[in-house]
TrEMBL record:
Protein name as it appears in the record: Uncharacterized protein
Source organism of the structure: Blepharisma stoltei
Listed PANTHER family: RAS-RELATED PROTEIN RAB
Single annotated GO MF: GTPase activity
Pfam family membership, one: Ras
């Protein structure tokens, strides 16, 4: 998630650098979504939806407006990442579900059998 503050244009301008950092250090198949946060403060927006959508489109990634304060569309952001991941795994022919982990059974049977004294 590349998240910027809609009420500060400097934050939006930094998305280009952050995108470069993700491309440089993350897995080449990393799922990316541009998030405009603080949608609850529309009256203080310094970045329009159109500007943000245009930037997201130039990166080839989805754009979502959210509010961490009131949880507006936060779930949608994670659902979008999940959908993109599923789409990517299908395109790569990778399984959607990995093998189940082996089951481990914890018992107390041998706990009393091994008793150590510090002085013996």
């Amino acid at each position: 998630m590349i998240v910027f503050d809609k009420t500060h244009c400097n934050s939006f301008e930094n998305t280009e650098m952050w995108m470069h950092e993700v491309d440089r250090y993350a897995n080449k198949n990393a799922i990316k979504v541009l998030i405009g946060n603080k949608s609850d403060m529309d009256n203080r927006d310094q970045v329009t939806r159109e500007e943000a959508e245009h930037k997201a489109k130039s990166y080839g990634i989805p754009y979502i407006e959210t509010s961490a304060k009131n949880a507006y569309q936060v779930d949608l952001a994670f659902e979008t990442i999940t959908r993109e991941l599923i789409k990517q795994r299908k395109a790569l022919g990778a399984p959607l579900v990995s093998k189940p982990a082996p089951k481990i059974s914890l018992t107390t049977e041998n706990i009393n059998a091994i008793s150590h004294n510090c002085c013996s």
